[in-house]
histidine kinase
Amino acid sequence: MTDKDELIHNAEEITKDDTNTPEVRDVVAGLLKKYIKTVHRLDRITKISDRQQREVLDVNEKLHQTYEELKQSQDRLVQAEKMASLGQLVAGVAHEINTPVGIAVGAASQLQYLTKTIATSIANKTAKKDDLFQYMHNAQEASQLILANLQRTSDLVRSFKMVSADQTSHEKRRFKVKDYAESLIMSLSPKLKTTSIKLEIKCPPDLEMDSFPGALAQVLTNLIINALMHAYDEGAAGNILIDIYRDDAFVVINFTDDGRGIAPENMGKIYDPFFTTNRAQGGTGLGLNITYNIVTQTLKGTIECQSTVDKGTTFIVRIPCDS
C-alpha cells in the first residue's frame, strides 16, 4: 500500500469511527473527498505530463535528425561551391593556355615551312646568301616567339598546379602573398575579361605568410565572384582594388569595389547561409558564408564589411601572419 492509499484508508476509518463526533467525521469526510479529487487530478496531470514529455522527446529527436540532415545538405552545398570554384579555375587556366599554345604552334609551323623551303633551295643549289640571312632572321624570331609562349604556358601550368593543389588540400606552408594572389587572379582572367571591371592588386613583393594558401585563395575567389555578381549591373564598368599589407603580426586585406553597395537592412545578413539578393542569376547565398567561416575558423582571423549604397563596399580581412 502506498502512502497515498494509506492516508485515504486512515481517513475513511475516521469517518466510520462512531467514537468521533459527527462534526469531526463530516470535516474529515469533506477533506477526504477534496483530497481524493486532488489526487485524481494530479494523476491525470501526471499522465498528461508523461505523454507530453514523450512527445517533447520525440520532437527533439526529430529536430535533431532534421538538423543533422540540414547540416549534411549544407556541407554538400559548401563542397559543391568549392568544387565549382576549382572548376572555374580549371576552365580559366585552360582558356589562358590555349592562346600561348596556339601562338607557339603557329610559329613552329611557320618555322617548319621556312626550313623546308630553304632546305629545298640549298638542295637545288638555288639558295642565295640573302636567302640564308633572311631565313636565319625569321628562324630566330620564330624561335623566340615559340620560347616566350611556351614559357608563358609553363608559368600558367605551374600557377594552376599550385593553386589547384592548395584548394584541394588543407596544408599549411610559407608563401609570398603577392605572387600567390597574382597567380590566382591570372586563373580568373577569363571571367574578368567578360566584364568591364578592372582589378588591381597592391601588395609588397616581399610580404610572406606561414598559413593556408588554399584557404586564402578561396577567400579571394569568393570576394571577387561576389563583387562581380552583386556589385555591378551587367556590362557596367567598375574598379576592384585588393590592397594587401602587413600590420604588426597580421596581414590585412582591404577588398574594395565601387559598385552599388549593400542596403542597410541586408548588412546584418550577408554572412548568413543561403542569404542572397541574386538567386535568379544563380546566387547560392553560400559564398560569403563560406568566406566568413574560412577567415574565422581556418585562418583564425576576422572579417568586417563597410558599405555605402551607390558608392561601394569594402571587406576588411585580418589574418595572422602565422595561422
User: Anything to note?
Assistant: The chain has seven helices and seven strands.
